[in-house]
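Table S2 (text version). Query chain:
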Amino acid sequence: MRAAVIDAPHSVSVVELDAPVCGPDDVVVAVKYVGLCGTDLELLHGTSSYLVDGKTSYPHHFGHEWVGIVQESGAHVHDLAAGDAVTGSTMIFCQSCTACGSGRRNQCSDLREVGLYEHGGAAAEFLVMPRRALVSLGRAPAEPEHVLIEPLVTVLEAVDSASVSPGDRVLVIGAGTIGSLAIAMLSQYPVTVDVLEPRPIDHLGPSAAAHSFTSTEALAGPYDIVVEASGGDGALGTGIGVLRPGGKCILVGVAAQSESIDPGAVALAGISIIGVRHGVDHYRRAAALFPLIRPALASLIDSVVPLSDAKSAFDRLESHRTRPKVVISID
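Corresponding structure-token output:
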């Protein structure tokens, strides 16, 4: 089968790989679309923690945001049929560790992650997945917007962690994919949402946020909740600095550098800092929400590029996009 791999820093190739074998508890999916994100760029640049920590190496078969059509089901799989549209969890949880046994599967201690480590990516004609890590989208056609279900589940975990109340003032830092999805979800609540983003945010629409700020100096705090979705330098300190006493900073963005904060100020203000690892338990919920926020999802897609031109998809993501998400079509 054809697949795209990052074969060295700044190098992407389309290669031939062996077709996946379907085990009794597995499903083979004909992949239709794969989303690219900042994690994929880090893998391309050679700066990813997965490379630094030795969890993966080159050539790296990427692709962790995807949608496809069931091609084949294993002998033990009876609730999916050929032709069903499906997407799946990036995190393949073990089901046997203490965290999984206590219902905290996003904290699984023995993970494999699709397109990241120990499980081949979805940037290929076919992908094999354990049934437990899939969610059915029914007989509807697979669409590019479906790749956004993967980041949406993390946003749902973040919103749940925030325990939003009517009348809350919320600041979202960063309007990339995660930040934009957070704004889309929070707009369904009776709250005021502001956004801090230095780049144009035309993709959000004029009514998505109450106020848009391009610099920290203009922020109109205090806020009840800050969703830090940028991973930017100093963003955590900015978020903490504009919270009211007792406020919450929901940390979703993954910073590439360390940052110093004043623990005394955090303690004296009673501020909570909550890290969000993933939303592995929210895939069915995200799929059910898809029709409600589909216009917001579609507005995030910059371009759809064929697998045969995968390198240009990375180039677009890095330098030329006007909206957050670049999608690869498995042509």
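Notes on Table S2: The chain has a mean pLDDT of 94. The chain is about 25% helix and 30% strand.
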